[in-house]
Amino acid sequence: xxxxxxxxxxxxxxxxxxxxxxxxxxxxxxxxxxxxxxxxxxxxxxxxxxxxxxxxxxxxxxxxxxxxxxxxxxxxxxxxxxxxxxxxxxxxxxxxxxxxxxxxxxxxxxxxxxxxxxxxxxxxxxxxxxxxxxxxxxxxxxxxxxxxxxxxxxxxxxxxxxxxxxxxxxxxxxxxxxxxxxxxxxxxxxxxxxxxxxxxxxxxxxxxxxxxxxxxxxxxxxxxxxxxxxxxxxxxxxxxxxxxxxxxxxxxxxxxxxxxxxxxxxxxxxxxxxxxxxxxxxxxxxxxxxxxxxxxxxxxxxxxxxxxxxxxxxxxx
Length: 317
Fold this sequence. Notes:
- The chain has helices at about 20-35, 60-75, 95-100, 120-125, 140-155, 175-185, 215-220, 245-255, 255-260, 285, 295-310, and strands at about 50-55, 75-80, 110-115, 130-135, 165, 190-195, 210, 225, 270.
- It is of the alpha/beta class.
- The two termini are about 25 Å apart.
- It is built from eleven helices and nine strands.
């Protein structure tokens, strides 16, 4: 393992608060854990006798499984909690739920919650490291860390001056904000692209470019991070609200091979999942050699192993 240094924060509540050094340290540690995952024996004893509680107050498949696998690869004991069918449905508060779990001598909490800021609130109430696995439309820091790790693997370690575009539903995406913050810390040029109704007005304050032209963005970019339309976060029971139809959205902002080949170089294609094939990206693009979508999945386990390992050093006595 790399010569050990601690992160500047005792919890990972968001990319805000991290330093460039924190991201570099997490990525360097993840690179070593990636090597571990490619060995015949994929397990290390780094978190033996350490208990991690996964608290998911919002549905998740990929993120929950990725965290659980990362924890088990580190030899941690794992407790999984879902709000469905729990005492939360009976009116128990978030703090009471977590305190009850901590009374069982849990050493770290990984939590996904539908309300922005829930992790900051919890961190002010409990004394164990907390990992934000997604809070509403606010942040998803481990996704940004794995995305930037994947970009470094694909484009080279130094992202300074690289052109990275985030395309799609920026307004409702926690992935977008965390990626913007992480990419800016690493010196990349960032552009968001999508319908005007799906791009928040505050984007300029984050130091990013705004575009409504996918074809121009493809020619500009070294990498495209394609986001899905999050109908479940748009209200009205998941119906289309911010553009006329999905068909029109796909015509203007869907990534096809025809569009992708406009670039004078091989543009890297990313997607945080789940993919809506035929909407924001075609199957041909998702499966082409320029797509690193499955690499992102693999890197997600290594990066989350790194985050858990680094934060475990902050466990209170």
